[in-house]
Amino acid sequence: MLYAKNLPKKLWAEAVNTAAFVLNRTGKSKQNEKTPFEVWTNQSFDIHELKIFGTPVYAHIPKERRKKWDKKAEKGLMVGYGEDIKGYRIYFSEKNTVDTKRDVVFLEQEKNKKGEPIIMFDTKEENNGGEESQTTSEVTPTNFDEDSCEITMCESVSVSEYQPCSDEETSSEETTPVLNERSKRVRKQTSFYKCNNVYSEESEPVTYKDAMSRKDASKWSEAIDKELQTLKANNTWDYCDAPVNTKVVARRSLFW
């Protein structure tokens, strides 16, 4: 799921929770014609509330959280479903945060960037002289109209004043010419990939070795020592003998 939508590995927990959420509401159980969710809660579930993982969305910003000339919505990606409150988990790449939002607009038709040619296939046509000539078919995606996107609402939520808006207008890009010989698809780096590059450069370490190899290793070492002292002071663990014929889970340091 993460690789299909080009999302960072940091969101692995959101992907696992989403997969479990969908399977519990669409999978089969021992009772005929009932899902595990219906068996456990004795409640039905509206399957139309399910959305594709990684779908672009606009999340409404309430009045109390914005000023007069601030934008009324911010763009993100749907990466899950709310647990404590009814809503959707939205990943905001600009802030590197995941929040649960109730007032969202799904851009389910937004798939390709404007101006990026997509070469579908190569065909060979035989002319009258018996020789084969190679042609290339090219499809350029049409502009996406955000006004026609679907609005998904949760119960008891008012969005009468909600108007989705975009911070930046889609800039026009030059169309890449298609070669007469064998076709080669040329990709341009979109703003979404650039954002991921910045995130990768500034991301937190995954292992202790990574933390100690950074420029700010001294700060990470100080933070690790402080955390260990806190765990010892709270009597977080006790030493004991491992049970017989039992696989012991190895320890692991987490930095996020």
UniProtKB/TrEMBL annotation:
One of its GO terms (molecular function) is endonuclease activity. It comes from the Eukaryota. The lineage of its organism: Eukaryota, Metazoa, Ecdysozoa, Arthropoda, Hexapoda. SUPFAM superfamilies: Ribonuclease H-like (SSF53098). GO terms for biological process: DNA integration; DNA recombination. Residues 56-114 form the Retroviral polymerase SH3-like domain. Transmembrane segments: none annotated. This is Retroviral polymerase SH3-like domain-containing protein. It comes from Pieris macdunnoughi. Keywords: DNA integration, DNA recombination, DNA-directed DNA polymerase, Endonuclease, Hydrolase, Magnesium, Metal-binding, Nuclease, Nucleotidyltransferase, RNA-directed DNA polymerase, Transferase.
